[in-house]
Structures are given as structure tokens and as C-alpha cells.
Amino acid sequence: MSGIEWLGVILLVLGALLGLVGGIGVLRFPDFFTRLHAAGVTDTLATGLFLSGLACLFGDWQATLKLALIFFFVLFTSPTASHALAKAALHGGLKPWKRREDPHG
Amino acid sequence: MSIASVLLLVGLAVLATMAMALARGLLGPTVYDRILAVNMFGTKTVLLIALLAARSGRSDYLDIALLYALINFIGVIAVLKYFEYGSLGHPHAEEGDEG
User: Fold this and answer.
1) Is the pTM of this model over 0.90?
2) Tell me, what DSSP letter sits at residue B88?
3) In which domain, by residue range, is A78 found?
4) pLDDT tens digits for range A32-77
5) What pLDDT is stored for residue B98 in this prediction?
6) What domain range is B13 assigned to?
7) A70 and B65 in contact (C-beta within 8 Å)?
8) Does some domain include residue A98?
């Protein structure tokens, strides 16, 4: 594989691993807002790594332009959706999770 | 390790993430967890479609991925609006309000 394909493969693998981390975070976190953080953070970054990795695998510039457009829209819509979700949850009376104050200081 | 096998492995990883999102969607105590799971599932579907585009070498699949990303966002916002205001109509819609 040529150099650019190696870069694509590395970016793809990083994006996939980050996605997995996000998935584990969404599963294991104790509270909705922490899960929202886990999902929100990895959504945009994993998508960015993933799509730039694919852009390296695609040769022609049209595909790269389309991938850049996809990433551009996801970059704007995903945080907005997360914000709306958090606002709706707070509005719906969901209290953020607090660690129990351990008694011995 | 050819490109195709890498794409396959990465595809499996994305599928695993989607399975986790589904698990959170089923387990999620509050309704917002479920909306979060749907949102995450949709974003990963965009990645899968882009992956299929790369695997088959046809870059016109990317339009589908782009469209899916936008529709996913609108769906999440619509569901949120429904849950926050109780109806998709005018937030303070009295009976007989044509607005």
C-alpha cells in the first residue's frame, strides 16, 4: 500500500477505536449528562478521523469534497443536537449526577 | 493486510459501536438516553454508508451518507421538540388555533 493509503488506514483505525471508546462511555457512565458528553465528544471527532481516513483512500477530489461536506454538516449538527438534548433533559427536570460526598473528607 | 480487510475490520468496529448505542437505547432509564442512542446510531450509520462507498469505490454513495446525516439531525430535533412541548404544533396551541 502506498503512503497515502497507510495514512488513510491509520486515520480509519483511530476513528474506529475512538468510536468504540465513545460507545463504551455511553454504556458505562452513571448519568445521562455524562453519557451525553461521552457520545457528543466522540461523535464529532471519530467522524472527523473516519472521514479524513476515507478521503485518503478515495483518490478523486469529488469524493474528498463530499466527505468534507459530510464532516462539515456533522460538525455543526451533532453539537447542536447534543445541546438541544441537554436543554430538553434539564427542562424535563433531569438532575445532573453528583458523586456522593464521601463522609471522611 | 489489504485495504478491503482494513475496511472490513473498521466496519465491524463501527457495528460494535452501534450495538453499544442500541444497548444504551434499550437500557436507558430516561427517554433522553433513548434519544441519545438514536442520535449516536444515526451518526454511525453515516459512517457505515461512507465505508460502503469506499469499499465499492462508488463515490455517489456519499450523497446518501450526507443526506442521512441531515435527516438524522432533523429527526432528533423533532423528537426533542415533541417531548419538550408535548406537541409538534405551536407550543401554546389552544383549541381551534389555526396558526
Assistant:
1) no
2) S
3) 3-91
4) 888 898 888 888 899 999 999 999 988 888 889 999 999 999 999 9
5) 46
6) 3-85
7) yes
8) no
Q: Given an 8 Å threshold on Cβ–Cβ distance, is A50 in contact with B47?
A: yes
Interface test with chain A among B22, B39, B51, B81, by most A beta carbons within 10 Å: B39
Q: Is residue A26 part of a domain?
A: yes
Q: How far apart are CA B61 and CA A63, in angstroms?
A: 10
B22 touches chain A (CB under 8 A): no
pLDDT, greater one: B93 or B21:
B21
pLDDT, one tens digit per residue, over B14-39 is: 999 999 999 999 988 888 899 999 99
For residue B62, pLDDT over 70 is answered with yes
Whole-angstrom distance, CA of residue B73 vs CA of residue B66: 11
In this structure, is residue A37 part of a structural domain?
A: yes
Q: Number of folded domains in chain B?
A: 1
Which DSSP helix (H) or strand (E) runs through A26?
helix A3-28
Q: Answer whether residue B99 is part of any domain.
A: no
CB < 8 Å from A in window 28-57 of B: 28, 30, 32-33, 35-37, 39-40, 43-44, 46-47, 50-51, 53-54
> Mean pLDDT over residues A73-84, rounded?
90
Neighbours of B82 (CB within 10 A): 13
Location of C-alpha cell 452501534: B18
Q: How many domains does chain A have?
A: 1
